[in-house]
Specification:
By secondary structure, the protein is an alpha+beta fold. The chain has 6 helices and 5 strands, in the order E-E-H-E-E-E-H-H-H-H-H. The protein has helices spanning about 20-30, 75, 80-90, 100-115, 120-125, 135-150; strands at about 1-5, 10-15, 45-50, 55, 70. The chain starts with a strand and ends with a helix.
């Protein structure tokens, strides 16, 4: 059994400690907002926060989160980053929407450590989160707006 906190609730999971956190979140805990994209940590669709840092859950073993705090897109609404989600909708960022939970989680990690990032800092931080629909200008605009409305 591996115990950790997810979205402010304590959980214990009986699974192979090397199971990717993504599958624990989706299959064992039923939180399906975190998406499977590439399985190799290259696209960012599976981004969650572990102790406040953005990580690729497809590349993070269950054993690596023992005793730690995990935040998924479902739990983000209960944090100050909820405003980011509202701005995401207002800026009409999603097209297909598949990558958006990972995009939002990556952006929330940036804004948690840098309330007023420059455009260049936003682009550098979001590099590696792939949007197949190409909504990058809207993603950047949403993050810029969130930083101003903070």
């Amino acid at each position: 059994m591996v115990s950790f906190t997810v979205n402010e609730g304590r959980v214990s999971v009986d699974a192979d400690p090397e199971t990717p956190l993504l599958w624990i979140i989706r299959d064992h805990l039923g939180l399906t907002g975190t998406k499977y994209g590439c399985g190799a940590g290259l696209c960012g669709a599976c981004t969650v926060h572990v102790d406040g840092s953005a990580v690729r859950s497809c590349q993070t073993a269950l054993s690596a989160v023992a005793g730690k705090s995990v935040l998924t897109i479902e739990g983000l609404a209960a944090t100050p980053s909820r405003k980011l989600q509202e701005i995401w909708i207002a800026e009409q960022v999603p097209q297909c929407g598949y990558c958006q939970s990972g995009q939002i989680m990556q952006a929330a990690a940036l804004l948690a450590t840098n309330r007023r990032p420059s455009r260049a800092e936003i682009i550098a931080h979001m590099d590696g989160n792939i949007c197949r629909c190409g909504t990058y200008p809207r993603i950047i605009a949403a993050i810029e707006r969130a930083s101003m409305e903070g």
